[in-house]
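Box 3.1 A note on notation
Throughout this textbook, protein chains are presented in two layers. The first layer is the amino acid sequence; the second is a token string describing backbone geometry. Keep the layers aligned when reading.
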Amino acid sequence: MVKEMDYHTKEELYQKLKGAFKVKLRLMQENQNNIREIDIWNYLKINKWSKDKNLTISEMVNDIINVDYTKVYQFVNNNR
């Protein structure tokens, strides 16, 4: 994940990325099917970011904007 010294908590990091989540949800508007910001966060946190090291905020924003809607949707359906 992101360097620990950059953010003290995951909540603080989540709040910093909130704008990118809102943009992604607007881009997915027609296909949203009750997908929430936290769903995208959890999908990427578990399936992408936990495997990466020294991520930057810009890399995380890029991941949010480019995340595959279908994969997030399947993740949500399997975990709710």
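DSSP finds four helices and no strands in the chain. The chain has a mean pLDDT of 88.
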